[in-house]
Amino acid sequence: VQGKGAFLSNFPGIEDQHFITGREAGKGMITKREVRLQILSLLQASKGDVIWDIGAGCGSVAVELAYWQPNANIYAIEHHADRLNCLAANQQRFGVVANLHAVAGRAPELLGDLPVANKVFVGGSDGELNEILQQSWQQLPIGGVLVASAIMESTKAKLHVFAETLTAEESETESMQIAISKGAKLAGQLVYKPNYPVTLYRFIKL
Questions:
Q1: Residue 180 to residue 176: CA distance in whole angstroms
Q2: Mean pLDDT for the chain overall
Q3: Which helix (H) or strand (E) holds 120?
Q4: What span, in angstroms and rounded, lies between the C-alpha atoms of 184 and 71?
Q5: Which of 1, 46, 64, 191 is deepest in the core (most CB within 10 A)?
Q6: Residues contacting residue 154 through CB under 8 Å, at least 6 positions apart
């Protein structure tokens, strides 16, 4: 049963400006729509899933996972107080009060206190990416999915190293880089402004 939300969407890919971030519409600590859609596709939330969203920020990924799959349980982990407030506000705004659980704290320390996940998304790590990847991977069951995103080159490098540690017998691995440029006006003319490219990895445990 979902709560009464202030915004109801009809299709995945909710526009960025509908999320509360504490900043101007469409800005702030959310995963942008184009990247978010790819993350949703890679995770494929299904009935009965337990999904961790680590470094959830203001909750755009967690909200969409919970909104479109009400029979999955989403645990959104965030330690930053302002982002947690925005996450709670988005939980109410979109009415995902039954299956989205905001968890205040840091990974990897609190991961052992959560229900075992069969799918994990790592959107932020606060410098603890190696430990988060190792702990998340170890607890995944066979068939479990780990998806991680990176913008910084140092973070991409850590994901690459982690991928290199997994054999073909252990993981079905894929990676991609998404580079989005959006149309805007400059001196009355159309130009395309690039966003930072985002690297995504998906690991399926074999």
A1: 13
A2: 95
A3: strand 119-122
A4: 39
A5: 64
A6: none
Q: Which tokens belong to 154?
A: 């140092």
Q: From residue 37, how far is each of 7, 74, 89, 113, 176 by CA, in Å?
A: 18, 17, 21, 29, 14
> 129 is written with which tokens?
């990416």
CA 189 to chain centroid, in Å, comes to 34
pLDDT higher than 50, residue 126: yes
Tens digit of pLDDT for each residue in 180-202? 999 999 999 999 999 999 999 99
Rounded Cα distance between 30 and 203, Å, is 23
Residues 75 and 50 sit within 8 Å (Cβ to Cβ): yes
CB 127 within 8 A of CB 54: no
- Residue 118, pLDDT > 50, answer yes
- Short-list 137, 195, 194, CA closest to 171: 137
Does the global pTM surpass 0.90?
Answer: yes
Q: What is the mean pLDDT of residues 11-40?
A: 92
Q: What pLDDT shows up at residue 75?
A: 98
Query: 3-class SS at 91?
Result: helix
- Residues 6+ positions from 3 with CB-CB distance below 8 Å: 92, 95, 96, 97, 98
Query: Residue 69 in contact with residue 49, Cβ under 8 Å?
Result: yes
CA proximity to 38, closest of 130, 159, 121? 121
Would you say 57 and 32 are in contact if contact means Cβ atoms under 8 Å apart?
no
pLDDT the model gives residue 1:
43
